[in-house]
Amino acid sequence: MSTKLNEERAREQLIDLAAEFYDQFAGGEIPHMTLPTRTKSNIEYDPDSGVWVYGDRTSTRSANSVRGARKLLKAVYTIEFLADQLDQGRSSTLRELYYLSESWDNEEAHFSDQDESNQMIEDLEIVSEVTREDFHMRPEESGATLMGPLKLREQTRRGEREIHCQKDVGEGGYQIPNNPDTIEFLDADIDFVLCVETGGMRDRLIENGFDEQYNCLVVHLKGQPARATRRITKRLHDELDLPVVVFCDGDPWSYRIYGSVAYGSIKSAHLSEHLATPEARYVGIQPSDIVEYDLPTDPLADSDINALESELTDPRFQTDYWEEQIELQLDIGKKAEQQSLAANGLDFVTETYLPERLDQMGVL
């Protein structure tokens, strides 16, 4: 579907939602909005799409309480703002929406903090079945980048531009736009996609020429990956039929970074089919690597232990591989960063660790 058609559909869905509230009023019904419960216990595996989605549990935002009425009032004001924004061909950030609400003529419609305005946009995505990108809402810049043998065409306000993600960019790479669906892949001499958590490791791979030596597209996740990063990763897999591997630190928070790429996140489970790449595989750092390579480590903090135990009950991590690795980590009581591989030399990660792991996985 074209960007223009997406925008038209987004506006229609918003207006329909506002009209539904009006019809509830007119019919003598208390206005309400029903949403899936966004908790770990309400996500389930969808075998058809291979991703994790919300289950059947729901919660209702209803005007039968003062708190519920305020939430619906804020929803109506937000719908009006988004529809006007689409009419004008403008866009705004999630942060700007929070501040913009201060100018609305009803104080009860003002958001108390950005978490509340962020959740409102997520709620409207779910009930309208339209993504925030089509609402022209964007986060603050994530700075995530691509580096590798990929030529693409990007739609910008200044027209189309063609970019090669090695030849036409500096050492920093090509910055992923907020809406990667404006990108067209033109030519790709890529064997696999390597998603990397940290900037230091991303820079090490590029400096050592890993992208050139192995025809690899390096995607810098920049910590917990933004939706745009997960979306372009999924498109690279689905449209170019490329293997995707994820390279993170060896701790429970980094496993969740991998999980958000492969399984989708609880917060955005309504978009799992749009964002998640269930075929993505974890290349490391593994707890077994800590033992095998005798890597420098830090002890697990209480919060790490709690997070690992939580992952053992998380349906997205209930596989033989993850249960074995997490149990091992709890047993050894240690965690390690990607950069700990440098204890074996600056070239160890590109000459030994990654080639061996990727060969074991059948990627190379």
UniProtKB/TrEMBL annotation:
Enzyme class, broadest EC rank: isomerase
The protein's name in its UniProt record: Type 2 DNA topoisomerase 6 subunit A
Keywords: ATP-binding, DNA-binding, Isomerase, Magnesium, Metal-binding, Nucleotide-binding, Topoisomerase
All copies of domain Topoisomerase 6 subunit A/Spo11 TOPRIM, residue ranges: 192-358
Residue span, Type II DNA topoisomerase VI subunit A all-beta domain: 140-189
EC code(s) of this entry: 5.6.2.2
Protein source organism: Halonotius aquaticus
PROSITE patterns linked: TOPO_IIB
Function: Relaxes both positive and negative superturns and exhibits a strong decatenase activity.
GO molecular function (one): ATP binding
Every Spo11/DNA topoisomerase VI subunit A N-terminal domain range: 70-136
